[in-house]
Amino acid sequence: MSHITTATPPPSPPTGDPAPVLLAQDGGVLSGVEDAINSVFAPIESFTSSIIFAEITVFGAAFPVIVAWLVIAAAVFTAYFGLVQLGKFRLAIQIARGKYTRNDEPGEITHFQALSSALSGTVGLGNIAGVGVAVTVGGAGATFWMILAGFLGMCTKFVECTLGVKYRKIDADGTVHGGPMYYLRQGIAERFPNGFGRSLGKVLAIGASVMLLFFALAGGNMFQANQTFAQLRSVTGGEDGLLGGGGAAFIFGLLLAGLVALVIVGGIKSIGKVTSRLVPTMGVIYVLACLVVILVNVNEVPRAFGEIVSGAFAPEGVAGGALGVMIIGFQRAAFSNEAGVGSAPIAHAAVRTRHPVTEGLVALLEPFVDTVIICTMTALTIVIASTDFWHDAKAAVAAGADSPEGVTVTSNAFETVLPWFPYVLMVAVALFAISTMITWSYYGEKAWNHLFGAGRVSSVVYRAVYCALIVCGTVLTLGPVLNFADAVLFGVAFFNILGLYLLAPIVKRELRDFLGKLKSGEIRPVDQDTSGSSAGSPPEPSDREKDGVG
């Protein structure tokens, strides 16, 4: 997804995305309100970012601690589960297509809809602009490390989304609640059945809920609305154009809020239906545009791959040498696919299945699509196009200048073949932002439910607040608020990954049991079962499901 940096960023490390075009008000009541809010949040944001985005120096290269925390966990899980993302990749695709899941299994949405919903929360402007910054600062070699980090992150998604389904709660009406706040509290208490285990699980769950809720309301909502309007206003002529009037932002915010409300009022079923169409459409359009550039320059493909591999180990003096290039690639991947952050398990928990590990396997496809495919296609397009702008920008960065806006780097690469690409980019930004807002509305609602209780009234209040903040996002900048939201999102990873380490043996047991049933024939493909089930007869509900937990 697209992460947050303001026009005058705080000292926290950049996330690799472009400085946004912000909509600060020039005087008036709104400006006073905005200044008052910013003055309160500025010191809070600065302190929080200094902790969460703290850096350590490794052989002269600055390494953000949060990135190390995410990447090391991904490597540990990959080793612990024996390269499950490679060995079970084909099985994951089969499950995503519904081969082993009956329609009457508990849950609300299909495997494919769950995957699409989670992807809509991660695929965003960061895949376009963030990659542009990464290959400018780190050179072509950053792509190699981006791919590797995305591959490792597949296993982290496998672990957290398996737990998201195993410890979900299913209400009497079939509504599903899941995510890190459930498996951290319940899973750790179950694994360590003593006072310490219960207390640790409760603390981790509440911390994750608060941070996820704040990001949903600010970063996953207000920021997306702000950027959507800013991009549309820029393309339509800026302050002198169609959307340059004083009330344009407010009217646009109302329309955008109404559009989002139409989707989220139906809950995850409605969200799943929309994202299962929107996400593949966005992805196909963007990847096709990349392929056009690549095919037009097909003779440059061998050179580009050569630069990517050689640049990963022998960079041209940028970004602190080979280690610096590796860090940049890892950072871009970690901030793009959010493996380990704990957001995706909320969407995946709603899937229809009796076997939690099936959704863990489907979830490992998410970093593959987001990072290994989309981010890599962006990087490859930039390297193959090899524009003068990109080379000049690399030279300027190597000389100590600031990196250019990543969206400009990417857009220039496409314009070598597709002069009208800025308009496609405008549509892509809008669709990416809207899909992110829709998905994060659901993530935030589940965190809200965990903190304040579930129920129709609670959900209506949350959705009203969420849509009202969309309007606020189009007319207020609130830079420190949005930067604080970006920091707390990755703060969730400290809580979440600690829990994943403690609960990994449970995931291994789930995987072993599922594969054993596949091998024995107890679980069969749906099309081989005359009853239409994935096993010879519908399995009895487990004790957890009888108690309202999936």
UniProtKB/TrEMBL annotation:
Keywords: Cell membrane, Membrane, Symport, Transmembrane, Transmembrane helix, Transport. The keyword Transmembrane applies. Residues 523-550 are annotated as: Disordered. It is found in: Cell membrane. InterPro entries: Na/Ala_symport. It is a multi-pass membrane protein. It comes from the Bacteria. The keyword ATP-binding does not apply. Its main location: membrane. Residues 541-550 have a biased composition (Basic and acidic residues). It holds the Pfam family Na_Ala_symp. The chain crosses the membrane at residues 56-81, 128-148, 203-223, 243-266, 278-296, 308-330, 361-385, 420-443, 464-482, 488-507. Belongs to the alanine or glycine:cation symporter (AGCS) (TC 2.A.25) family. This is Alanine or glycine:cation symporter, AGCS family. It comes from Actinoalloteichus caeruleus DSM 43889.
